[in-house]
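Model it.
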Amino acid sequence: MNKITLVVVDCQHDFVEGGSLEVKGGLAAVGHIRELLLSGKVGRVVFTQDWHPKDHCSFAGQGGPWPSHCVRGTRGANIHPDLLQAVRKMNIYAEFLHKGKDQDREEYTAFEHLHDYADYHAYRAASAKTKKPEVMAFGKKEPVVVCGIAGDVCVLNTLKSLRPMCPAVFTQGTASLDGGQALNDYIREEGLQVIE
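Modeled.
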């Protein structure tokens, strides 16, 4: 059996209990993701991270809908250490994609631009200011599983971006602001596979 590629969305300090934009069940989701990482079933992990400047347009102080969160260079922007420790322990190949880097641009997925090639899908994201591209390629037969925080915001938008790859969803490794309603509706409407 092929090992999965696990896309872990925004499992950062600011999104778990005690963070500036805490999501109920965030720490439990991190615990389930850790268990999956330690199971030997994961061959590659892609971590996405909000990586905002301190004056990001999504922040309430700038007229946006969210409290200040995941400001780059702060503890709140860091991936939860339990996940990084599990990756190191299992020697899993890990990659990191940052989003929301530009002050005037909100991003709810790190995979906005799909390029379809014969044997793989490639996603390209580039900062409008730095012009440095981040490229991520997935083989078309590569089993991709998505989890993370928040299920009704960035996890949902990540699933929509990755839809051509028919990703599965690790629901136990997901926490949502709305209790899971939007994510569960999308899973049902699209017929996505759920793994436990």
